[in-house]
Request: fold
Amino acid sequence: PLVSMRELLDHAAENGYGIPAFNVNNLEQVQAVMEAARETAAPVILQASAGARKYAGEPFVKHLIQAALEAYPEIPLVMHQDHGQSPDVCAGAIKLGFSSVMMDGSLEADGKTIASYDYNVDVTRKVVDMAHKLGVTVEGELGCLGSLETMKGDKEDGHGTEATMTREQLLTDPEQAADFVKKTQLDALAIAIGTSHGAYKFTRKPTGDILAIDRIKEIHRRIPNTHLVMHGSSSVPQDLLEIIRQYGGKMKETYGVPVEEIQEAIKHGVRKINIDTDIRLAMTGAVRKFMAENPDKFDMREWMKPAREAARQICKQRYLQFGCEGQA
Ligand code: G3H
Ligand code: 13P
Ligand code: ZN
Reply:
């Protein structure tokens, strides 16, 4: 059944696990996530970005998720809008039937300019007022995502600048987080704790302290009833990069967030873990391999199948690693 995100995250908090939120854009990705969830009896958060809605078109996004509900009736499922850029975008998603929306007021509506704190409070509060009346959950974002290794803001989500930032600028402030929650009454808060979007997060192999775990603990202590969200949580598995390179892909050396660090974060209040890049890497590697090994094949189903299978495997792994097994 379609459920609100609040319901799923409350259950995750009570039982001490985290839920991966997978970005989906097409049929095969939706099927991969749902199949992985069925195998592990895990609850599901399917999220669609503005890019997904543009790629597939709104009716297709909506009905792909409707199809998932119909085909997997036993699985509690959240239909979440990722990175809403304005209250209007969130209203549109709610109208489409989403049970959860993210109002990302950390950036202005152009998706580029770092927003003032007052702007963020204002737009997030607006969305909460509109959404809560309808039983829809709201995620907000406070802080500037970026890497504590390069000390640069996240380029992919618009926070990126060439300028080097200070550690304080790249971490969500716990006092401000408490004020933000009080003023907006949101359900879940995306925090900046050292992650960034995309495949190129870290240039060196992380040594076990790539996330600001202490900061997560402080924020959780200040706002224990607000579920924490980690964006940019792909682990960028080296074996997937190897497959891509082996079959002609060009990806330079890069590292993601180690699963063990995510597991540590889950112990301290992180409940929703956003993953997109790992699925992209898995599917791309599988397609490259199939194409290289089967130059005579041209039935799209034949190369989509291994891609869907690779996506299913990575999703299943994350459900197991984050403690979702049997929680549906
Ligand atoms: O937050 C970004 C997600 O990875 C979605 O990416 O905007 O390319 O669909 P996208
Ligand atoms: P990744 O790029 O690390 O997969 O992060 C995705 C994300 O945060 C979507 O909102
Ligand atoms: Zn994100």
About this structure: The beta strands are 19-23, 44-48, 77-84, 100-103, 137-142, 146-147, 152-153, 188-191, 227-230, 270-275. Residues 300-321 form the longest helix (22 residues). The radius of gyration is 19 Å.
